[in-house]
């Protein structure tokens, strides 16, 4: 399998973060995650902004902070098959995804804000 690079954005509103639940017929079905997607021939931050817009119908400003990386592994849990660039956007204005209007809104069944102690798993 080819090594793939992905990019995603954590939206932090005071003490809560935005998560979206993957649709039952998508990859990682019914999993709560940050909006993210593959990086294709553009900068990771540009991919993060594009994917966020395609999945939520929200345009974010370009000032994102790279806060870390997540390694993706094969089912054997030893072979690295990808890397996710994780960006942070802190806001005090409620950002509300519109899955019905979003180009790829079908990838998620719902979105919500969660405090760190109440993360859905």
What does this protein structure show overall?
- The chain is mainly beta and 121 residues long.
- Helix content is 11%, strand content 42%.
- The chain contains one helix and seven strands.
- Strands 1, 2, 3, 4, 5, 6 and 7 form a seven-stranded mixed β-sheet that branches.
- β5 and β6 (80-91) form a beta hairpin.
- The model has no long low-confidence stretch (mean pLDDT 93).
Set down the secondary structure blueprint.
Elements: E1 4-13, E2 16-22, E3 32-33, E4 36-38, H1 44-56, E5 65-73, E6 80-91, E7 108-115
Parallel strand pairs: 1-6
Antiparallel strand pairs: 1-2, 1-4, 2-3, 2-7, 5-6
Distance between the termini: 28 Å
Residue-averaged pLDDT: 93
In total, the number of strands is 7
Question: What is the number of helical segments per DSSP (H or I, 4+ residues)?
Answer: 1
Q: Report the radius of gyration as a whole number of Å.
A: 14 Å
Helical amount among residues, as a percent range? 10-25%
Strand content: 35-45%
What structural class results from the helix and strand content?
A: mainly beta
Largest sheet: 7 strands, mixed
List SSEs in N-to-C order: EEEEHEEE
> Low-confidence runs (pLDDT<50, min 5 residues)?
none
Overall geometric form: globular
Q: Which short descriptors sum up this protein?
A:
seven-stranded mixed beta sheet; 1 helix
Sum this structure up briefly:
The protein is mainly beta and 121 residues long. 11% of the residues lie in helices and 42% in strands. The chain has one helix at residues 44-56; strands at 4-13, 16-22, 32-33, 36-38, 65-73, 80-91, 108-115.
